[in-house]
Write a structure and sequence with these properties.
This is Tetratricopeptide repeat protein. The chain is mainly alpha-helical and 150 residues long. The protein folds into two domains: 2-66; 92-143, Tetratricopeptide repeat domain (Serine Threonine Protein Phosphatase 5, Tetratricopeptide repeat, Alpha Horseshoe), CATH 1.25.40. 77% of the residues lie in helices and 0% in strands.
């Protein structure tokens, strides 16, 4: 729940920032000289890119949450079997062992979105966020019946 609050708060702050930056871009365009119009257009591009990124990230989170809910209903969510330090951090060797098991499971069933979902969780636990995101994107694509590259 805390992650959702943080996400929505951050998104709201970004949207306010995009509006402020966009208004400055409009003011520059309204000034009417070649230089200010050029800068105004350049300034307007930044919030558009930011809004696109925020939209794509929100879609990704919603799709991943949909898969998690479906997997939970099936009883297939991975059990947290990781060893933790006294401070609560995941032990690296424990994460590596779980990752090896999830990778082997995915290699045995490369077309199963459930395996890719669990592999994404293992990547995340091993602190490999880029690969976790790619594995989750593959799980989403497989779930939705979209073609995925080998």
């Amino acid at each position: 729940m805390r992650a959702k609050i943080t996400y929505f708060l951050t998104a709201a702050v970004l949207i306010v920032y995009f509006v402020l930056v966009g208004s400055r871009g409009v003011l520059l365009i309204q000034h009417g000289t070649l230089l200010t119009v050029t800068f105004g257009i350049a300034v307007l591009v930044l919030p558009l890119i930011g809004l696109w990124f925020l939209w794509k990230s929100t879609q990704f989170v919603n799709r991943a949450n949909r898969l998690a809910a479906e997997l939970e209903a099936e009883g297939g969510l991975p059990v947290d079997e990781l060893v933790r330090t006294p401070g609560g951090r995941i032990d690296r060797d424990s994460a590596d062992a779980v990752f090896a098991a999830r990778r082997a499971e995915t290699e045995d069933s490369p077309g199963d979105w459930r395996c890719w979902f669990r592999l994404a969780i293992a990547y995340h636990d091993a602190r490999d966020t880029p690969r976790a995101r790619k594995a989750m994107q593959r799980a989403i694509a497989l779930h939705d019946g979209k073609p995925v590259a080998a």
